[in-house]
Amino acid sequence: MKTRQLGRSGLEVTVLTMGCWQAGGAQWNDTDDEESIKAIRAAHEAGINFFDTAEAYGDGHSEEIVAQALEGHRDHVLIATKVFPGNYTAEKIAQSCANSLKRLQTDHIDLYQLHWPTGQWGTPVVPVEETMGAMVKLQEEGKIRAIGVSNFSSQQIEEALQFGRVESQQPPYSLFWRSYEFNGTLQTCIDNGIGVIPYSPLAQGLLTGKFNRDNRPQGDNREGNALFKGETYDKAVDAVEQFKSIAEKYGVSTGNLSLQWLLGQPGVTSVIVGARNAEQASDNAKAAGFQISDEDRAAIDRIGRTVTDTLPENPTNMWG
């Protein structure tokens, strides 16, 4: 699978990243550890070398599953994880990193990310100078190779850059969620040589076509997602129907079409896509194997905007 350099780090990551949020179990329905392990291994067998997790995913359970799935392959993969904003003091970041290293069964983390801006989700506000200082120290100690951020605004990225090099930004970004593109955050990343690794590129499953007006996901985090509410959800269902004819031209699913569209967007380095089982992981990998014509890319963009036009101006958080 094709690789791209992440920021200026020298890390060569595949254009698709295996997202491991589901492997944590929490906030998702019907997850199974054995299936998660098979999915991660299938992604690796399909050529993916980059795996993304976080300490917050199942209170570290996702990291443990990643370690089990990749046992014996550590020298051939790159692992990214994240520290939760409740742990942004220097002392807590050091401890969080130590805990993640233990759960991941490794002596270094390739990309260590600040999961949300400080103060998010009711966490204490910690000066970015202290937080970034702790991250740089971990880097100097060899415990992490590169520093990244997630869900940051342009201003927050620029503030972090005053105290250390940031190699990546992880935003929610898809055909149905483009606020980071419209509000200038992506341009800030491009201007500073920061790689963009979008998460939720399938709009939490909406772009796969498995949902309709009579079949909405229930009982998990998607109930609070703005894309699954009211007029926006109805527009999304209609848009996916229109994508199907374009996907058929390339012999792929609407999900793969959506992933390949995102891979062609300026500034995007690698797209993070999750899977519940090996079949989904193998199918996702097909998205790296074709190219969309300029004409079809324009049509996809036009259809996608019928959904984004229903959202509030410049939203940054899909969950309110």
Written account of the structure:
The chain is of the alpha/beta class and 320 residues long. The chain has a single domain (3-206, 253-291), classed as Alpha-Beta Barrel (TIM Barrel), CATH 3.20.20.100. The chain contains 11 helices and 10 strands. The chain has helices at 33-45, 61-69, 90-104, 128-140, 154-161, 179-182, 185-191, 230-250, 254-263, 278-285, 294-308, and strands at residues 3-5, 12-14, 16-19, 50-52, 78-83, 109-114, 144-150, 168-170, 195-196, 271-274. The strands form 2 sheets. The protein has an 8-stranded parallel beta sheet. It has a two-stranded antiparallel ribbon with strand order 1-2. Helix 2 (61-69) links the parallel strand 4 (50-52) and strand 5. The relative contact order is 0.14.
Concise summary:
With 320 residues, this protein is of the alpha/beta class. It contains 11 helices and 10 strands. The chain has a single domain (3-206, 253-291), classed as NADP-dependent oxidoreductase domain (TIM Barrel, Alpha-Beta Barrel).
